[in-house]
Amino acid sequence: MTGDVDTSRLLGLDALRDALLETWQGVRDVVAGYGPNVLLALGLTLLYALLFWGVSKVAFALLGRLVHVDAHPIARRVLRTVLRLTFGLLVLLSVTALFPALGQWSGAVFRVYLLLLLLYVGWGVIQRFLHVQTEQWELDASLRLLVGNVARVVWVLLGVYLVSAQFGINLLPILGGLGVVGLAVGFAAQDILANLISGVTLLLDRPFRIGDWIRTEAHEGQVTRLTLRTTRIRTRDNEHVSIPNKEVAGAVVENLSKGGTLRLNVPVPLAYHDHVERARTLLLGVLPDFPEVLPDPAPAVLVQELEESRVRLLLRFWIGADHVAGSPVIRMRVLEAAKEAMQAAGLDVPFPRMRVQLGGVPLERTPPGRGEER
Questions:
Q1: Looking at 114-118, 134-138, 212-216, 273-277, which range is the least confident one?
Q2: Where does the Mechanosensitive ion channel MscS domain lie (predicted)?
Q3: How far apart are the C-alpha atoms of 140 and 147, rounded to whole Å?
């Protein structure tokens, strides 16, 4: 006995069709119930955007006439922030008023608006206070950066906690859970933590400051910024290099700027048959042509070493702190001028030579008139 088989029911097509029809009906009900309010909210948002644009133009024009030129950028930034917060408040209040389910959050939104204004003004006061205190204590740029970053992080965390509290969200259990997760992440990010600790160490120990010229094992340049993770320098070739703080903290760092003036040493070779005093007079006579070389401390020419084939002289002179960046070029120019001066005066610049003498071994000589044996 055979019967007809309903293939659509067997494949589940009827159930799929019913589900799609039910979903479509739900969408139609939502659009019918909330569609006009959504369109109204979009229209109000557009209206508020046009109002914000017009008020900003008028406010900035009045600000340019009423505020002094020096304080104009700060006042402009404050006014723009206040207008943006107000625009966001109007949009959120309109949305919560149009949708009854969100009406309970109207008070919280207004409190958050006032709280953000208070946090913004408070941060301005804190920045001014930190600026005055760091100037009074004569802290360098690196420590100012550390203090500013720590204060910013604490202020942002306080703001997040206060804003979440307005919506009834308690962050303390979340922070406790994040502490456990942070412990696990800490083991997986040991290099990052090492750089952070090394960055704090460098900021407190201060082996160099922003703007100093330093030399490490692999790099030489001017310190442009010191963050909690990297030390950033600009090399003499205008290359910007970021070095992990743990490598800087664990390496030998030469600070070329900390002492102010910098002494350069230029080795100059001299033949044994030439007089050192004559060479000294010639080399010292070259330095006045270079304005970067300081007359005090006085330059000097000393005998550094007596080598096998020549005398190594050392021309020593000082340059000011403003010329530390160009010290390699100054050294090369002085070396070139020294070579030209010695050559013009007839002094030899000998090359390294080696004399090899074989003792106890007679040299084989070909007798006269005999050719090579074949």
A1: 134-138
A2: 191-258
A3: 11
